[in-house]
Here is the input.
Amino acid sequence: MLIFDADDTLWENNVLFERVIEDFFEWLAHPTLARPQIRVILNDIERANAAAHGYGSKVFLRSLAECLESLYERPATEAERRHIDGLANRLVAREIELLPGVAETLADLGARHRLLLLTKGDPTEQQRKLDASQLARFFGNVHIVPEKEVEVYQRLAREHTLELAATWMIGNSPKSDITPARQAGMNAVFIPHEHTWVLEHAELDPHDSGVLRLTRFPELLNHF
Here is the structure.
């Protein structure tokens, strides 16, 4: 069984949020704080909102508005909220950009292995992205979950009667894809993405023989 992450493993995702954040900083034009200082504040707000409200564009917009309110110590005006919503239009009105070689690699792997998709976030948004990607046909099962914790991987193992030693979780996030899968007894394939969300970063054991490290998605064909 090969279990695949979606965002920034199969298609581009976080780079779009990063572009919105840059536009937000440009528009914000804070008189005293530099962008790196504001980014620390925004990261803290996003971390708290992810824990309380989950993921997706609506939570992201909430974080941007709360960042503005924190910086200026006042509620965001209706006009400011409309402007923030406008900045984020690209997140909800767009086509999916697959990462290089994804469709061809999945087609090849699917001829020899069971494939499953495991993605976290807002169910409607994640399903929309999956539909736009036209990749659903490659997966025997699709799971959209609020968070990827070790219990989620353990539940998948029970639900699909997985042999853990023959199960691999494939993704770009050390925090959500690699670490909890390993804690559940699965193997993992780490394919870093240069735009992985900072809140998904985590240290991995460089000596863990259960983690295969690749640089490009099509390299999976050399191992599976």
